[in-house]
């Protein structure tokens, strides 16, 4: 049984269908990527999974349970946590306060459990430790992205949704973020990643889906897609 | 490894320094500073400081009005400052609170209870919780459909609500008597004596300095402290953290697991009931309720107090309320200021113009208000500090960990 399954999912904004009947699965422990051009419906799909955007048709299944009508905040408790596109860091809260908000839905049994979670995040992102008392709005883009991921980790997600973590970042920072994403995945957190940076995303993911104008056109192993001539031409800029 | 650990030292504003100084004090010291300060404020109508005292109107009554405004500002601050919901119809709750008290206790109201089983002496005290409950329910009724809207749309709908309440009061003539108003509203009858046959809270008590205004001011101080304690505790709880998150980014709050709709509704209900309490005070003090007192311009004044003082800062909005109430009254009836002849009545008449200019100037130079908010969200404040310290120490011992994150 897959951890996440989308069955024939359609999401629309008024009469425009941004996502048209896509189906995909994410198995437990996998790192799956959704790539596509602007307007392909990647972010809309993410928002439907996290529950911010209502589903028009089809269903979302998580851990064998139909969560299509479940409220967004309840999905967090169930284990689906998103680091939103554009980072969604609380601008007036400090780094530490942002992380605290990440664990809003989670109750720590002991203080030690809480402390070790925070330490783990700072371990992954030492930069956040340096910036711990700085407010979110004054962080650089890369730092905000780290904070968004770190904050999502505070909730101990079973499925981590990452929406374009590389958006607007310098190549070196992108590499660093991707390294950490791989590390989080290796430690057992299932990840669904939305990306435009196909090279990095495909080379690091187990499987990938390619989304075009709201439909899945290709899917397969990340490495295979990387070698696929059509994908190469469309997303990697190689003729 | 950190390239810019030599950042410029943090520039602290005056309010930050004041806050730091206050936070650093021990609890008993805070009480030792705070209590005399409150007592000093409370004694103002008796001390009557020379320049501060109003000349055109009774100082005690001005301060009583300030007390009610301060309550309103604290209530509106929960909605606007804490949860970030722009409510332009807050006067509606104020009106509902006042009208509830009036309808229950005025002899000319069709729902008057003071004839049958409610003693006139205790009617006001009975009516206050009823008014609070009523406004809370009206907050729920207004909030449930409208809080799905955001930003400007919510503002427009609440603006409409404020007008609807006033128009209902104006037009349901067989209940509210419309423009004629409800007279002889009950007030707490205590402290009856020879000179004060109707008690200290009666509008008939005009023996200065302990006239009715002063007593209402003191009652409002007590209520403000109680409300501040309740609201302050809420702010420091999970509820307060949820409000701040909603204010900063509603979608992000939702995907952090905050039930945003529920908490927005709670902010609305709590804000509404505080507004209702203030309305009940108003009805008791003035003993007369007419629709004209609840014009939409009042909503703007309340909001002005909150924005002027500093959204999200409880002391700030109290200061804002003071400015809004006190300044026009300060000029009223004044013919000279520091030796310069002025026409104070004219200046007071133009109060909306001056508040408008003040707001524009403030938005340019100090958009967070006179006393800006700096929320402390950390329910786990100390543990976090310890944890970060530990991690920092670990880092300095293991340089390898540092280089891992050192892509630049």
Helix-strand blueprint:
The complex is a heterodimer of chains A (239) and B (408).
Chain A: E1 4-13, E2 16-26, E3 31-36, H1 42-50, E4 57-62, E5 65-66, H2 72-78, E6 80-83, H3 95-102, H4 111-124, H5 126-130, H6 141-154, E7 159-163, H7 171-186, E8 190-195, H8 198-204, E9 207-212, E10 215-221, H9 222-227, H10 229-235
Parallel strand pairs in A: 3-8, 3-9, 6-7, 7-8
Antiparallel strand pairs in A: 1-2, 1-4, 4-5, 9-10
Chain B: H1 14-24, H2 27-47, H3 59-82, H4 90-105, H5 120-146, H6 151-171, H7 173-176, E1 182-183, H8 212-236, H9 238-248, H10 250-255, H11 260-286, E2 288-289, H12 296-309, H13 314-331, E3 336-337, E4 340-341, H14 344-349, H15 351-365, H16 381-397, H17 399-404
Antiparallel strand pairs in B: 1-2, 3-4
Helix pairs in contact in B: 3-8, 3-11, 3-12, 3-13, 4-5, 4-6, 4-11, 5-11, 8-9, 9-11, 12-13
Structure write-up:
- Chain A is built from ten helices and ten strands.
- In chain A, α3 (95-102) packs parallel to α6 and α4 (111-124) packs antiparallel against α6.
- The N and C termini of chain A lie far apart (39 Å).
- With 239 residues, chain A is α/β, with parallel strands linked by helices.
- With 408 residues, chain B is mostly helical.
- Chain B has one domain: ABC transporter involved in vitamin B12 uptake, BtuC (Orthogonal Bundle), CATH 1.10.3470.
- A two-stranded antiparallel ribbon of chain B has the order 1-2. A two-stranded antiparallel sheet of chain B has the order 3-4.
- The longest helix of chain B has 27 residues, at 120-146.
- The termini of chain B are close together.
């Amino acid at each position: 049984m897959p951890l996440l399954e989308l069955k024939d999912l359609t999401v629309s904004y008024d009469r425009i269908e941004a996502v048209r009947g896509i189906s995909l699965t994410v198995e437990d422990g996998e790192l799956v990527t959704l790539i596509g051009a602007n307007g392909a419906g990647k972010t809309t799909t993410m928002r439907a999974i996290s529950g911010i955007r209502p589903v028009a048709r089809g269903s979302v299944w998580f851990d064998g349970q139909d969560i299509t009508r479940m409220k967004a905040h309840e999905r967090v408790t169930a284990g689906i946590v998103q680091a939103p596109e554009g980072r969604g860091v609380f601008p007036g809260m400090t780094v530490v306060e942002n992380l605290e908000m990440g664990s809003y839905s989670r109750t720590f049994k002991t203080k030690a459990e809480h402390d070790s979670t925070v330490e783990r995040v700072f371990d992954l992102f030492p930069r956040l430790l340096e910036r711990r008392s700085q407010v979110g709005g004054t962080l650089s883009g890369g730092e905000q992205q780290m904070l968004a991921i770190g904050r999502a980790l505070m909730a101990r997600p079973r499925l981590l949704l990452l929406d374009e973590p590389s958006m607007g970042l310098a190549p070196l920072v992108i590499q660093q973020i991707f390294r950490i994403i791989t590390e989080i995945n290796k430690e057992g957190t299932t990840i669904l990643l939305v990306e435009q940076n196909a090279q990095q995303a495909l080379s690091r993911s187990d499987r990938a889906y390619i989304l075009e104008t709201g439909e899945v056109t290709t899917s397969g192993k990340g490495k295979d897609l990387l070698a696929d001539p059509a994908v190469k031409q469309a997303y990697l800029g190689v003729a | 490894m950190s390239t810019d650990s030599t950042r410029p030292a943090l520039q602290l504003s005056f309010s930050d320094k004041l806050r730091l100084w206050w936070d650093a004090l021990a609890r008993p010291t805070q009480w030792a500073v705070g209590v005399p300060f409150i007592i000093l404020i409370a004694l103002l109508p008796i001390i009557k400081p020379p320049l501060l005292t109003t000349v055109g109107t009774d100082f005690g009554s001005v301060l009583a009005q300030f007390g009610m405004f301060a309550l309103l500002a604290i209530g509106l601050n929960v909605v606007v400052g804490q949860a970030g919901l722009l409510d332009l119809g807050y006067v509606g709750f104020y009106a509902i609170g006042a009208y509830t008290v009036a309808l229950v206790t005025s002899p000319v109201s069709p729902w008057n209870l003071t004839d049958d089983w409610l003693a006139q002496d205790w009617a006001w005290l009975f009516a206050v919780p009823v008014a609070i409950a009523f406004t809370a329910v009206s907050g729920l009724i207004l909030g449930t459909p409208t809080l799905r809207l955001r930003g400007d749309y919510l503002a427009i709908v609440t603006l409409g609500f404020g007008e609807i309440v006033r128009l209902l009061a104006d037009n349901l003539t067989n209940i509210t008597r419309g423009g004629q108003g409800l007279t002889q509203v009950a007030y707490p009858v205590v402290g009856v004596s020879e000179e004060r046959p109707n008690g200290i809270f009666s509008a008939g008590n005009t023996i200065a300095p302990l006239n009715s205004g002063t007593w209402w001011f003191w009652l409002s101080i007590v209520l403000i402290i109680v409300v501040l304690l309740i609201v302050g505790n809420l702010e420091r709880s999970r509820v307060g953290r949820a409000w701040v998150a909603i204010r900063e980014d509603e979608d992000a709050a939702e995907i952090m697991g905050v039930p945003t709709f529920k908490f927005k509704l709670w902010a609305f209900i709590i804000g509404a009931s505080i507004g209702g309490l203030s309305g009940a005070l108003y009805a008791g003090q003035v003993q007369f309720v007419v629709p004209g007192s609840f014009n939409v311009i009042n909503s703007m004044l309340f909001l002005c107090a909150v924005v002027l003082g500093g959204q999200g800062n409880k002391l700030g909005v109290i200061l804002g309320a003071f400015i809004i109430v006190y300044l026009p009254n300060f000029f009223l009836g004044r013919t000279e200021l520091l030796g310069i002849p002025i026409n104070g009545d004219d200046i007071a008449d133009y109060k909306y113009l001056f508040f408008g200019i003040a707001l524009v100037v403030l938005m340019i130079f100090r958009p967070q208000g006179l006393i800006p908010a700096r929320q402390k969200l950390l329910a786990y404040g100390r543990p976090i500090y310890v944890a970060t310290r530990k991690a920092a120490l670990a880092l300095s011992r293991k340089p390898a960990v540092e280089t891992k994150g050192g892509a630049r």
